[in-house]
Design brief:
Elements lengths: L1 H10 L2 H25 L4 H18 L7 E2 L2 H14 L1 H20 L11 H19 L4 E4 L2 E4 L2 H24 L5 H15 L7 H4 L18 H33 L5 H17 L6 E2 L1 H9 L5 H22 L4 H15 L3 H5 L5 H16 L2 H22 L2 E5 L5 E10 L4 H6 L9 E5 L3 E3 L2 H16 L3 E5 L3 H9 L8
Parallel strand pairs: 6-7, 6-8, 7-9
Antiparallel strand pairs: 1-4, 2-3, 5-6
Helix pairs in contact: 2-3, 2-4, 2-12, 2-13, 3-11, 3-13, 4-5, 4-10, 5-10, 5-11, 6-14, 6-16, 6-17, 7-8, 7-14, 8-14, 10-11, 10-12, 12-14, 16-17
Length: 495
């Protein structure tokens, strides 16, 4: 069984996975360079981080087919840190954030991602799809001494034409053949066309020069004291939170697309370890990248080999192939990312907005908007809070009680529902101590006690009837609920 699983994870359809990894590597390079520049870092730091994180998570992670690298969400977090304290503090922060990520997996908290509501997932996917598309618009701008301006004239026409040609190839080629990834054909084809026609368009080399050597082991030169920890810990904690969120949400999406189940805790540990290694070898921090993951999956990448290929190719680009890679037109990569954004967006969510409950529609829209205008962590947090509050409200409203007055001098209450913090007030309103007879029976066969608020509600109910000079007896209390009350020291009379 182990051997079969190993073969499936590594050697299933080798050709398709290698080509998928190669395609993904082309898309990784400009993204990682751009994110490094956003964080005011040397572009090689982004590429080193992409190589290390992509390769190590592919080898040791819990989700074959998913691509990780130097992500933009992580870059945004560290901008202020780099500006205030410099690169060495960043590297120390990356190491610490990796330790926190790994600890999250060691404590087996990765399974918590299964609790993220589906509307939050839809909002996350839609928001990131919009972010991916909007981020490509930067390539239609040109830096001038007067500031950034939009491309004009021939440069604009050529850029638009090449982007359109790239998208057309990606959409049309799968109808003709599925032997090679359409994105790979589009990137190489547009690159060759642009080179031989000498088209006036920007290339990857205009973004940054990527030639370099092997990453070297380098312990961050920062004081190992509490002052340093005070500086880096808030950034490290935020990086870990954002990285884990984006990784685990992309993890869920990959599970859905591939119709398989990965190991979230293993992925968290591998991601943490790879960030530690990246920080020690001068690379940026990173996490799962939804755009590149979608490229890999759509190109047929399902095994660990695709991720390893993508990571190794980035290293080869740095060491040997930079002159060739730098000739790739940015327009080809922009076109591929536009297609990725279109394919990532859950268009079906637009059709169901009017059909699903209003609170679910609100969550989808809220998470999408917040993801676009703020950040992923805030969006997911808000989405979960909205969903949780609605869940609590709905269950609180479901609390009701039947009454039975068939026995003279006795009233039987049969409450239905879950007694927890949100339903306590409604639960208390079901009872009338002032007008009820002297003997009250509380039949709990349909009542579930969930938390400490439920315990306090039962205590309060006893006190209300005791003050009225009346006696309450509890029947059919479940073993779990009985143990919950006894543990809290509540003395109840159970029939």
């Amino acid at each position: 069984m182990i051997n079969a699983t190993f073969r499936e994870e590594w050697f299933s359809n080798i050709q398709k996975n290698v080509l998928a990894g190669l395609t993904t590597s082309f898309a990784l390079v400009p993204e990682c360079i751009a994110f490094a520049l956003v964080a005011q870092l040397n572009p090689l730091m982004g590429l080193y981080g992409a190589f290390i994180i992509c390769a190590l998570t592919a080898i040791f992670g819990g989700r074959p087919g998913m691509i990780s690298g130097a992500a933009g969400s992580m870059a945004v977090v560290i901008v202020a840190l780099v500006a205030r304290h410099g690169v060495q503090y960043l590297l120390a922060t990356v190491v610490l954030s990796g330790i926190l990520m790994a600890l999250f997996g060691i404590l087996r908290l990765g399974k918590l991602i299964r609790m993220v509501p589906h509307p939050v997932m839809l909002g996350f996917v839609n928001g990131l799809a919009i972010v991916i598309a909007m981020s490509q618009l930067e390539h239609f701008r040109l830096a001038t001494p007067q500031g950034e301006t939009w491309l004009q004239g021939t440069s604009l026409y050529v850029m638009v034409a090449l982007v359109a040609l790239t998208m057309a190839i990606v959409y049309v080629l799968p109808r003709l053949t599925k032997a090679v990834p359409p994105a790979l054909v589009a990137i190489l084809g547009v690159g060759v066309l642009s080179h031989f026609l000498h088209l006036p368009t920007r290339t990857l080399g205009d973004l940054a020069h990527i030639a370099g050597g092997l990453p070297a082991l380098h312990w961050p030169t920062v004081p190992l004291d509490m002052a340093t920890l005070h500086i880096i810990f808030p950034y490290a904690a935020l990086m870990a939170m954002v990285g884990l969120l984006e990784t685990l949400l992309t993890f869920n999406l990959t599970d859905e697309i591939t119709e398989t189940r990965g190991q979230p805790n293993r992925e968290c540990i591998a991601l943490g370890a790879s960030n530690v290694v990246s920080g020690l070898f001068g690379g940026m921090g990173g996490c799962a990248m939804i755009g590149q993951t979608m490229i890999n999956l759509s190109s047929g990448g399902r095994s660990r080999l695709s991720g390893v290929t993508a990571g190794v190719m980035i290293l080869l680009f740095i060491l040997f192939l930079s002159p060739l890679i730098e000739r790739i037109p940015l327009a080809a990569l922009v076109g591929v990312m536009f297609v990725v954004a279109q394919q990532t967006f859950a268009w079906g969510s637009l059709r169901v907005l009017g059909k699903v409950p209003r609170h679910d529609a609100l969550v989808i829209v809220a998470v999408t908007v917040i993801t676009v205008f703020t950040d992923l962590a805030m969006a997911v947090l808000c989405g979960i809070v909205i969903a949780a509050l609605n869940f609590a409200w709905q269950h609180a409203r479901d609390m009701r009680a039947d009454t039975d007055d068939s026995t003279p001098g006795v009233r039987v209450y049969v409450p239905h529902g879950t007694l927890f913090f949100a339903s306590v007030a409604h639960f208390q309103e079901l009872f009338r101590p002032a007008t009820d007879p002297a003997r009250i029976i509380l039949d709990c066969r349909h009542l579930h006690l969930a938390d400490h608020s439920a315990i306090a509600a039962i205590e309060a109910l006893y006190e209300r009837y005791d003050k009225a000079g009346k006696h309450v007896r509890v029947m059919h209390l479940s073993g779990r609920s009985q143990a919950l009350l006894q543990r809290a020291g509540v003395d109840v009379s159970v029939a």
